[in-house]
Amino acid sequence: MTMCFCFASTRRYLERRQREPGRIALGVHRQTPVEALQGDMGWSSFMAREAVANATYEKRFRHHPSANLTRQVWVDIIIASCSTRWARRTRSLLDRYHPPTVCLETQGEVHVAVPAVSTLQLVRQRETK
Predict the structure, then answer these.
(1) Which of 7, 15, 61, 68 has the fewest CB within 10 Å, making it most exposed?
(2) How high is the mean pLDDT of the chain?
């Protein structure tokens, strides 16, 4: 999986360009609300897909053995609260979509702090609000 970062202006442009064919396919005017368009087409925003990708990416690190070097670096970044570009972006996505929190200290099975709901369902719930 490749983690890709882009400027907010680029992301907005991609969102707009993605919605144009959807409006044409549905035969609706340009002022149709984005939520209605995404619901009818079954599309999600780039930001929502990025939130899912980041959650999946972090889930991979949580399941690595504790002796794994990449997991150690990831845990050190979290503990030290390093403010890297990726950490800031991930934190803003977490604040927006509120995925389940996970304790890093658990051994074996990871215990989720909220009821088991898929990240995709959480993202869809937040998008429709």
Answers:
(1) 7
(2) 74
What is the model's pTM?
Answer: 0.52
Tokens 């604040």, located at residue? 95
**DSSP annotation string for 25-67:** HHT--TTS-HHHHHHHHT---HHHHHHHHHHHHHHHHHHS-TT
Fill in the DSSP letter of residue 100. Answer: P
Q: How far apart are CA 35 and CA 78, in angstroms?
A: 34
**Boundaries of every domain in the chain:** 8-128
Q: Give the Cα separation of 89 and 50 in Å (integer).
A: 10
